[in-house]
Amino acid sequence: MNTQGANAGDTSEPAQDNTLTRRRFVRNTAVGAVVVLGTSAISVPGASAASRPQCAALVSGGPMWVTPDCDDPTYNQPVIDSERDLTSPVPHRKVSGHFDGTNKKFTLCLPPKGQWQGRFFHKVYPLTDENAADQDIAFGADSGAYVVQTNGGTGYRVDAAAAKFSRTYAAKYYGSSRRIHGYIWGGSGGSFQTIGAIENTEGVWDGAVPFIPGTPYSIPSSFTVRALARLVLRDKAPRIADAVRPGGSGKPFAGLNSVERAMLRETTGFGVPLHAWEDHAYVLGLSAPDGLLGFTAVLRTMDPTYADDFWSKPGYLGTEKSALGDIVRAARIDLLTTVQKVDRDARNTPTSLVLASAPTQADTTGLDFTVVGGDGTTVIGTLKASLDPATRVVTLASGNDTKVLAALDTGVRMRLDNKWTIAFRAYHRYQAPTRPGFYAWDQYRGPDGKPLYPQRALQVGPLISKSTSGGGTHTGKITGKIIVVGNLVDTDANPWPGDWYRARVKEALGARYDDDFRLWYSDNADHLEGPVTGARAARLIEFTGILQQALRDLSAWVEKGVEPARTTSYDVTGSQVSVPEHAAARRGIQPVVDLTVDGADRIEVPAGRSVTFTARIEVPPRAGRIVRTEWDFAGTGTFAAKPFGPPRPVVEIRQTFTYTEPGTYFPVLKATAQREGDTATPFGQVPNLGRVRVVVR
Questions:
Q1: Where in the sequence is the domain holding 439, given as residue range(s)?
Q2: What is the DSSP secondary structure assignment for residue 540, as one 8-state letter?
């Protein structure tokens, strides 16, 4: 494997007539410096784009293979639009540009020369723009790295072109001939791009940190299985949540009937973490505007006959003679009703309707609204709208066809139908992977390994995965070192895909596996990146610091041969990932907080009686020291710091508290580790939580 990056003085980067125009730019900002850059040019010596080979796929129809020695035929002319010297969030040179003939933009944020240590960090995500977050710029500078970001959309080609150009610019800006190392990182959809990049380029990036990863079959299946569970478990979800909370019974299946138990087993077997059910509204999509059904429109285009097959053909849940089939059919809405009233705005455009009748089903998410003729079958057109069943009011969304709006009047007939969104919820059953190793689907196979249900001719997940990753197929054939970060309460991608990809890499690398791959699991962390606020903070951590430490450890691994923490020790049973209770056995870099209240995980006391919390906090070997402890006795997500002495790898503390009001409380102790034991830095902070239950009578 060749992990050599482009030399700092690499002269083979694509250029436009061997020069990059720097346009005149004047900027006056309240937080940055005032900068005036006159017209000048940056010479890019070396071969012209026309004389260099074009990057191409290694196999027909495969993803593009990108190296420093080839030019992407689309993104081979970088143009600098502006250069600004800023002081916020930290002093840096911001270079903004685009690739000529495209709408793709890039930004480089370079710290001062005395701070730069010869590397760059490059974050990717399909929906991001080219402007790096202040936190990422400051972290990069603090880590001796400049930052690269693009609005590349899906795939990795734009980012590869930007990464290669950044080396040329940085070498000239810093006046350096040293080798420049690069590291790509991205989560969720960005993990697909990151993996696609590190598998299908060589010498562009030296390492990668994909986090909260999925598999090529994750979308839409990780959403459909939860939407199906909503039909069955919505009423029992609070009971399941209480069972998995701290001090709960630990028996989430208790009190469920046979079909409910089967559905919870299916959801759990698919990888939805049991502990994630504490936020059952999120698991079931009760608070999601699209009810987890957002990919229905994509499916209707890609597999247009699916819904009709679901409701008419043997083997599908829509026709299955079972208790679950009965529930699915009872959820079906096919209502022909009449418009009783039309509300209009000042321009006489309809804004809402009142219907003569409304569905009796509890879940009306994803209804189709079709205006029909007097015969009830002739379609006039469809509407984008939402329904309040209690008031029978249909609120019209923007973007509706003016001809359909013009047809709306009192007495007009309308059909409300959810055949597609109900059918969509079971789609994962008919998408069993053809590649081995996707053990979440084993529950849908018989003893002979064959699928139990009809399978669709089109496998949607891999097509979405290929589109997002730039044609990549998760082969495991990485061309640099990689640290994968998975989260144990990840409802959206689930934890098990990290283990699945580990197996792919091990199969591809063989004996070199431990030299190039790590998988770290983070406890009490979900799929949502960024600050954790409000009540969520009482049970979830922000995992930004874990990603930052992964990037730092990755760069030390590549540049100095310093091996990072070993892969987290874990077990997978029925697609559920579990980790050891103690830090030394668990490994990774996250501290473990063992909290008890009066020696247990649950206690019942009368109001006014003091309780004593005891905690042992331990950091895995060589992973740092505890620098902060914070208490939230009410379990509301509001923490107060409590001193414990100097930073150290193991901390044991006792704290007494008195509850004066009756109620059920879930007090939390948050402990944060930092590699160097730095109590002041905002970077590389690795938190975890300890929680118990206190019932006050």
A1: 218-326+425-444
A2: -
